[in-house]
Amino acid sequence: MLALGSNTISVRASTSCNALLKELQQIWTEIGESDADKDRMLFELESECLEIYRKKVDEAANAKARLHQTVAAKEAELATLIAALGELNIHSPIQTEKQLTTLKQKLASVAPVVEELRMKKEERIKQISDIKAQIEKISGEITGYSNLSNGVICSLTLDEEDLSLRKLNEYQSHLCSLQKKKSDHMHKVLKYVNEVHSLCGVLGLDFGQTVINVHPSLDGANDQEQSTNISESTFAGLEQAILKLKTEKKARIDRLKDVVASLVELWTLMDSAKEEKSKFSKIISTLGSSEPDISEPGILSTETIDQATTEVERLTKLKASRMKELVLKKRSEFEEICRITRIEPDTSLSAEKSNALMDSGLVDPSELLANIEAQIIKVKEEAMSRKDIMERIDKWLSVCEEENWLEEYNRDENRYNAGRGAHINLKRAEKARLTVSKIPAIVDNLISKTVAWEDEKRKLFLYDGVRLVSIVEDYKLARLRREEEKRRSRDQKRLQDLFLKEKESIYGSKPSPRKTNSFRKPNGYRANGHGSMTPTPRRNSVGGTPELVTPRSYSGRQNGYFKEMRRLSTAPLNFVAIPKEDTMSYISISGSEPGSPSQG
Description:
The chain is mainly α and 600 residues long. Helix content is 72%, strand content 2%. The chain has helices at residues 2-31, 35-85, 93-96, 103-143, 148-156, 165-203, 207-214, 232-270, 274-278, 281-287, 302-321, 323-341, 351-360, 365-385, 387-411, 422-436, 439-457, 468-507, 551-554, 560-570, 580-591; strands at 462-463, 466-467, 525-527, 533-535, 541-542, 545-546.
């Protein structure tokens, strides 16, 4: 087809040239040119035509060379792009299509492929550059921006020889691992920052300034565009800041506790009103919690501590002006505790002596108050150690009152009258006899416990200033004398009955009836409204403790029972006239082991 077209063009060109040559020769003939001139001019014409053809051939050859070079460059570029992108499945169309014979056909087939791969390369470069930029940014955040300048250079000198999907996946995997590491670091930083925020709130410190001192990027209010530094150095700085804040928190808690302790003590001394205490109720309730649970904002601020300190200073000054009143109040409290616990108070701290010492200026009221408070603590501690014995004393006194009631009941000659309530008294009498039979064991057990206490404490157990063992021993002796008097009374009654019987047998006369005590109101009884008497044991107690046998009653207080005991103790003991069974009873009372029963 091409060859036919070329031949047609040549034939047409030859025909045109021959026609023009004939026309030129006709013109020359008409002009009258000679044959030599015609030959010369034809030679020149042929030379010019040949030169024109030669130029066209040279131009065509040059165009072919350039086109061939272009095709070669395209093929080389295509190979380079395929290698860089790793597109092994793409091949040059020149090599795959054998029908491509001309250079323009080859160029037209390879140019679109090259253009497509160029665009793909640019897109791949952009992807890898973006990923590398993120990697460099995250690496800078994790490492503390130490290699930021190197990262910028790396971005500019991107290796364009390896833009394969494998390389892209490597960058993406590296980016994912860095993002996970960044997330872990970020959570750790946020945890530390939140703890710093909480501690600063409790201590009343500036949170922003605290985190800026660690790293400026931690304060988001200053620069929203700046990335948060999550490097190890930031962790170390935050840990150090937290440790410092916790130390300060503990120190302030200890300081505030000391201030509050002084404040509570002053409130107690000054009898402060609830309105004054309510101002610091939140502080006191918060300090009752453990240290980690104290999270109330501003509760440990310097302002809060200063307020409490100022209040302590105010109350301290007020305390100095009311010290005398406080000393007397504490002294009254001390005496009340001693009275309740039956401990003899220290007379060196009496109200009169305390007033005299304070008025003379010889003793500082604060020292005197501290001395009284120390005595109160000492008395309370001793009262705790005496608790068991005091309970046994109460039990003994209660049994003694039952014994008194039983004696008064036995003296009542109308006790068996068939009145309403008589059976109640009878049952109580039976119960009282059982209780009274345990008195010797109770007394011996009390003495044993008291002696053991004295051996342990290496001092005497005093009850209202008198040794308890002496009181109990006197009680045992008085009880023995009372038993002796009862025995003599029974013997005397038997002799009188015998004498009356002998007189009746001799003279035949009957003795006049004895006067009865039917109308005597028995001590310790009260009418129950039904014609009978209900027993009511006598008690003189303070704080629920019956004072049947106490050092105060022992030393002269009006107590009927001990007056009777002292009356009985004036009568001499007639041990010669004591029957055998009574002698054994005394031995049992005075020498039995604790817990052994004895006849009363």
